[in-house]
Amino acid sequence: MTEPFIGEIQLFGFNFPPYGWASCNGATLAIRQNTALFSLLGTQYGGDGMTTFQLPNFTNRAGCNQGQGAGLTLRHIGETFGSNSVTLSQAEMPAHSHSLTIYNQSDSTKRAASPSTGNSLSVPNSSAPFLPDAQPNAQFAPNTIGSAGGSQPHENRQPYLAINFSIALSGVFPSFD
Predict the structure, then answer these.
(1) Is the four-CA dihedral 9, 11, 17, 18 of positive or negative sign?
(2) Which one, of 61, 59, 72, 88, lies nearest residue 150 by Cα?
(3) Are 55 and 31 in contact (CB under 8 A)?
(4) Three-class DSSP category at 53
(5) What does each C-alpha distance from 114 to 107, 120, 128 come to in angstroms?
(6) pLDDT tens sequence for the chain (177 residues)
């Protein structure tokens, strides 16, 4: 491997940072022991800027480029955003419907325990989804359709592969030209 730039972030397939590197886990470092790295990172990722600074933290986060792309929000280096889980409200879901087609099959020889050509599961007035003794075009029983869930947050992340993000603590100081 070539000598890295100080502050360069690399991905490694093993679970520890190599010698001269540190995990990108938001660790707090002393400025006096890492002056070159501090001069590049400053307090963009945290720290008091007097005695400490922090490394980037990729724990539960995905990387994002700084700046602003077409139609995108401006992002500054070190900024964190997004949420690990969200609770959707009814207002956030697109309008949609759940339809169900029922056929009245009065010939009991054509009824079956599972869907098949020419058969139905039951007649409307004896089926559990309907009110007792209901006729065709009757409303469903209240527990057949309607609200579901417990208003709990859900995962809202793209698929990931866990790998080791590490930052170079030593190496070549990058030039600014």
Answers:
(1) negative
(2) 88
(3) no
(4) strand
(5) 16, 8, 15
(6) 689 999 999 999 999 999 999 999 999 999 999 999 999 999 999 999 999 999 999 988 888 899 998 998 999 999 998 887 778 777 777 777 666 666 566 777 766 666 666 555 555 545 455 445 556 666 666 656 666 666 777 777 778 888 999 999 999 999 987
